[in-house]
């Protein structure tokens, strides 16, 4: 299991979702992706992406200006 960090702070929609999707394609089942965003729309867009891909959001953290998602790549999930 590998943890990959993706810093998307400062990027606006649709870039956080597009870059998250691209990063997920490179992961193997069981790997995790930690995504840091500042775009308020990412709290809607990234969970929607994860529903599409079949992966799992393990932790969603929301601090002042930062939103953190930890996504686990699920075996057989279509990326």
Q: In a nutshell, what does this entry contain?
A:
With 79 residues, the chain is an alpha+beta fold. 29% of the residues lie in helices and 32% in strands. It has helices spanning 15-25, 42-53; strands at 3-8, 32-37, 56-62, 67-72.
Strand content: 25-35%
Unreliable segments (pLDDT under 50, ≥5 consecutive)? none
Task: Report the mean per-residue pLDDT as an integer.
Answer: 92
Order of helices and strands: EHEHEE
Number of strands: 4
How is the main sheet built? Answer: 4 strands, mixed
Strand order, main sheet: write it out: 1-2-4-3
Helix content: 25-40%
What report would you give on this structure?
This protein is of the alpha+beta class and 79 residues long. The chain is built from two helices and four strands. It has helices at residues 15-25, 42-53; strands spanning 3-8, 32-37, 56-62, 67-72. Helix 1 (15-25) packs parallel to helix 2. The longest helix has 12 residues, at 42-53. The mean pLDDT is 92.
What distinguishing features does this structure have?
globular; four-stranded mixed β-sheet; alpha+beta; 79 residues
SSE layout:
Blueprint: E1 3-8, H1 15-25, E2 32-37, H2 42-53, E3 56-62, E4 67-72
Parallel strand pairs: 1-2
Antiparallel strand pairs: 2-4, 3-4
Helix pairs in contact: 1-2
